[in-house]
Amino acid sequence: MNDLRVMAPDGPDYPVGLLDLEDPPQLYVLGETTTAPAVAVVGTRRCTRYGLNLADAFGHALSRAGWTTVSGLARGIDAAAHRGTLRGQGGAVAVLGSGVDVVYPVENADLYRSILLSGGAIMSEYPPGTRPDRWRFPARNRIIAGIASAVVVVEAGVKGGALITARLAAEMGRPVLVVPGDVDRPASVGCNHLIRDGAHPVLGVDDLLTELEFILGEPPNQMPAPAGVIPATGLVIDDLPSIWECTPAEALARLARMEILGEARRVGDLVLPGSG
């Protein structure tokens, strides 16, 4: 690990947001960090396919906009957000609950390597060789919350690390954005509770980017907005990704947003203009 760096709280390259912590830790870092605003995308390991697709779409959109995606390399929502980021222009930062040379879970070894190869970073407060003991992960979450300028919770159960990250972020004054879900879906219980307690709901990729631009300012990269006009004859839903030049998950998220606003409606396999 010849490229291992150590960042001290009084160092010039130390993440400024971590100075908001009562105990800003020394960081061990592999790879490259940037000065672009960071957005944490977090959620449960016990997620749904819907949650995985949305986390991937969020990571991809953040990357295309030029913002950094921060998460924990855990299975589920975290890994999906990282993969979405890598499909864009990179900019992923994974914060581990182990040493930076210890990949956990091992199933994410390829993702770990891809983050480094894409110009992203792996970081931890624990020295190389440190095992991923369970008690280390809640502490890891405070680093994710501290680095981020905003936190996005995609899916979360009634307990779990995503809720810890959201609580810590709120305590540090970071905006917490949450995807709402069915009231009887276990993976959405925590999200719905966060919204009930004051977190801001986000209804898809477009909504997320709008909220983040309000919070963070103009994105570093100007993303061309996909066409939003639905002709009177309608469009085939399966054709939307190619027409709008985006992923299927992003197309469905955008369509859902347009339906909520009354700009579109589904009829069979077609999307037609709405009444809004």
Give an overview of the whole structure.
The structure is a single chain. This protein is 36% helix and 16% strand. It has a nine-stranded mixed β-sheet, with helices on both faces. Helix 4 (136-147) packs across helix 5 (161-171). The protein folds into two domains: 5-216, Rossmann fold (3-Layer(aba) Sandwich); 235-273. The protein is α/β, with parallel strands linked by helices. The model has no long low-confidence stretch (mean pLDDT 90). The longest helix is centred in the first third of the chain and has 17 residues, at 49-65.
Provide key terms for this protein.
single chain, 276 residues, alpha/beta, Rossmann fold, 2 domains, 9-stranded mixed sheet, 3-stranded antiparallel sheet, 16% strand, globular
